[in-house]
Write a structure and sequence with these properties.
Helices cover 39% and strands 8% of the residues. The chain has three helices and two strands.
């Protein structure tokens, strides 16, 4: 609703639950990982939550649209 009422050139949504984001936001959604309190990581190198990979993907998506708008 907020996005519909304001002029926004670029944005991303970062969340661990897709809800309806992926359907409506397509390229603007980045899904992080989640672990419940009673779960144990199978691999200690697994990342929980926001990772450097998510950050890199976010920056890439935001910069891609900014570059496109500058041309």
């Amino acid at each position: 609703v907020w996005l519909a009422k304001h002029e926004v050139e670029n944005f991303i949504v970062i969340d661990d639950e897709p809800y309806n984001y992926k359907e409506f936001l397509k390229d603007n959604f980045i899904k992080t990982s989640i672990i419940k309190d009673d779960e144990v990581l199978k691999n200690p190198n697994d990342c929980i939550g926001l990772s450097e990979q998510h950050i890199g993907e976010s920056v890439k998506k935001l910069n891609k649209k900014l570059v496109k708008n500058c041309q």
